[in-house]
Amino acid sequence: MATAQFNFSERTVETWVRATLDQWTSQPDSLPATGETWAQDRGGAGSVPGLHLRIRIGRQGGRWMLDDPTVGFYLLRRVHGRKITRLLGDRRIMGVDTARREARELLGKLNQGEDPKEERRQATELARLRSLTYRQALEAFLDASPSLTKGTRKKYGESLSTTFKETADQPLTYFTPLRVRRIHEERSRESRARADQDMRVLRLLWNWARENYQTTEGEPILGVNPVSVALNRRRAGQTGWNAVPRKESIIPRAKLPDWFQALYVVRDTPDLTSEARRVSCLL
Question: How far apart are the C-alpha atoms of 168 and 157, rounded to whole Å?
């Protein structure tokens, strides 16, 4: 069905809507297969390029519901070679003058390269990314790391019920250096080795999420790794890594895959010192 074109006013809009619905009621065969039709604001001094009005009806039980139509103002326009369709508002609560003003403002922003809808989408996506919890980050990391051994997966997973039992469902942004230091100190009272191990997991997840969760402009949503800040002895004073003495026994053959995997994790750590990286590459 061809798009109707006329100069929008409160009277002409109401007349068109009523006449269209009356025709669909009296002549069901004239009803479009899509259940909708459009009108464009044209021909008057105050008309706005791209301003449209849409009537749409739904179906229920195979029948068109003519008694409950949806009527709304839209901006349909090609901007910088891209077709834009944006809902401006419901006809029941938006008048013609308001629709024209909204259409002009939106068209001006689009012509300047601004897109409020895209900005809202990005803001929503950014909020979602920033709400990524420790548990979600760990699950996503494990899903993205099929080469990890069963033992390593179990070891990482145990942090959910021990060191991060109370904070596993907190966003990663919850882990400030001060909180990391406190959690590490509390866990160290039970197991100094596990406290260090689980903090390395948090450090790994933070770096992984920083690399894989970014804005559409490529900016990371996470800043400096709080574990590196909190447990650096030069910054943390008397606190820091527990520096549990390394085991001097020979690694059992069955444990070698886990050992090599841990070595690979260390090599991939972004904040690893150059000296530590050289040593890990020699092993």
Answer: 11
Q: Which two tokens stand for residue 21?
A: 């619905």
Helix, strand, coil: what percent of the chain each, to 5?
50, 15, 35
- The radius of gyration of the chain's CA atoms, rounded to the nearest angstrom, is 30
Contacts of 9 (CB under 8 A, 6+ apart): 44, 96
Q: In what order do the strands lie in the sheet with 36-41?
A: 4-6, 36-41, 51-56, 70-79, 82-90
pLDDT digits (tens, 9 = 90+) for 223-272: 889 999 888 765 545 568 887 766 666 777 787 888 777 777 766 666 66
pLDDT in tens, 157-211: 999 999 999 999 999 989 999 999 999 999 999 999 999 999 999 999 999 988 8
| DSSP label of 89 | E
Burial of 41 (C-beta count, 10 Å sphere; 0-12/13-18/19+): buried
Handedness of CA 43, 48, 50, 55 (dihedral sign): negative
**Stated pTM of the model:** 0.49
**Strand, coil or helix: 133:** strand
Alpha helix positions (H), the chain = 10-26, 96-111, 116-130, 134-143, 150-158, 177-188, 192-212, 226-230, 233-236, 256-267, 274-282
Contacts of 167 (CB under 8 A, 6+ apart): 134, 174, 175, 179, 183
Closest CA to 134 of 98, 177, 169: 169
Q: Which of 190, 221, 191, 225 is nearest to 206 (CA)?
A: 225
Neighbours of 113 (CB within 10 A): 8
Any residues with CB less than 8 A from the CB of 11 and at least 6 apart, and which? none
